[in-house]
Amino acid sequence: MISHIYKKNHDVTKTRKGKTEQLLRVDDHDFTMRPAFGGPAIPVGVDVQVESLDSISEVDMDFTMTLYLRHYWKDERLSFPSTTNNSMTFDGRLVKKIWVPDVFFVHSKRSFIHDTTTDNIMLRVFPDGHVLYSMRITVTAMCNMDFSRFPLDSQTCSLELESYAYTDEDLMLYWKNGNESLKTDEKISLSQFLIQKFHTTSRLAFYSSTGWYNRLYISFTLRRHIFFFLLQTYFPATLMVMLSWVSFWIDRRAVPARVSLGITTVLTMSTIITGVNASMPRVSYIKAVDIYLWVSFVFVFLSVLEYAAVNYLTTVQERKERKLREKFPCTCGIPHSKTMMLDGNYSESDANSLAGYPRSQMVPEEEKQEKMVVHLAMSNASNSSRKRGLKGHVGLRIIQNTHAIDKYSRLIFPGTYIFFNLIYWSVFS
């Protein structure tokens, strides 16, 4: 039965008297010149099927794409007689013997034709001389990216095709079916980007030394996924800022606790900033993520400076109190004291009565000053009542413990940081 089939279906490779080159008259023509040499420009249609977007590199500012590139043109030198009007299909070995368009990728860094298991090249010739030339190519091309809004950015990249040798007077490169000339695989996806759209354009490119060339563009827009950066950058930075606020609730006398907390948050913020910049190109402008991280770093650093101010003012206050004790030995052993500034509107008797001094212990007249410092020794109940009485007098100022700065910081720092976040996300989102 098998032998019967072979007898019925003749082997067409044996019935032809000549080789394929002879059938296509390859040896009869000079294929180093384009079709219709000396005449009008030969039209070469192009269509592309994108198989995959392999990677997007922010550091190198490039992208890698695998695609099927197909050319369509007519070369009457390759026409052959056929009763069935069937085309003939060849692999890459015939390509080296005929004329094919010299299309290259503008701004490409690396590209290659796949060769597993053989060269991924297909040549199909029709009886009237129409030719289909298809290749499977992976190309890495440059993409000019703007990171001013990173990571809340969108990037538009283009793959550009152009004839290397033939100007628009010799070769007219065009999209074969307009926007329908570009096909993409529905399964194309990237881990960090959402592919929004693909589209095609064409225009003329001018070179001062050689002339005008037809150039085709495959453009696509990518929108970055923000969730990864929220988890890896924004949330850790925000938590470090909030952690630095914990020091406002720690006793100002706990120096090791507050200093170690401040230094830890500062170093952690520095690590976050370094990690983000390590995966980015060294651009000369400020990125959106830089604004957020550096403002967060400033908040953390200010919390350290805040405690430095608290500690310094506490030391100054204790030094003043120590000097006053030495100046007024009668106050020694008094259990509870407050420091008050009186502005001279008070009489000497009023001041001493507030301080609890008898008239026999009044300071001599020559030692009076316009502003006198009085240490008041009071019980808790009498102290509060006398303070309420003093608040009504202009010029009376109570120098309280410096932890009041912490009280203000508990409100000012969170409020300012929340306001910054509202402005930041409303501008960049």
Strand content: 25-35%
The main pleated sheet reads as: 8 strands, mixed
The averaged pLDDT comes out at 81
Helix content: 25-40%
How many runs of DSSP E, i.e. beta strands?
15
Q: Helices and strands, in N-to-C order?
A: HHHEEEEEEEEEEEEHHHEHEHEH
Quaternary state of this entry equals single chain
Distance between the termini: 73 Å
Domain Neurotransmitter-gated ion-channel ligand-binding: 26-225
Domain Neurotransmitter-gated ion-channel transmembrane: 233-425
Transmembrane segments: 226-247, 259-279, 291-313, 411-428
Protein name: GABA(C) receptor
Care to describe what's here?
By secondary structure, this protein is an alpha+beta fold. The chain contains nine helices and 15 strands. The protein has helices spanning 2-8, 12-15, 20-23, 227-245, 255-278, 288-327, 348-355, 380-390, 404-428, and strands at residues 42-57, 62-74, 88-90, 103-106, 108-113, 121-125, 130-142, 154-163, 171-175, 182-184, 193-207, 211-224, 337-342, 372-377, 397-398. The strands form three sheets. Strands 1, 2, 3, 5, 6, 7, 9 and 10 form an eight-stranded mixed beta sheet that branches. A four-stranded antiparallel beta sheet has the order 4-8-12-11, with no helix packed on it. A three-stranded antiparallel beta sheet has the order 14-13-15, with helices on one face. Helix 5 packs antiparallel against helix 6 and helix 6 (288-327) runs antiparallel to helix 9. The protein starts with a helix and ends with a helix. Residues 1-8, 13-18, 334-363, 365-382 and 389-402 have low confidence and may be disordered.
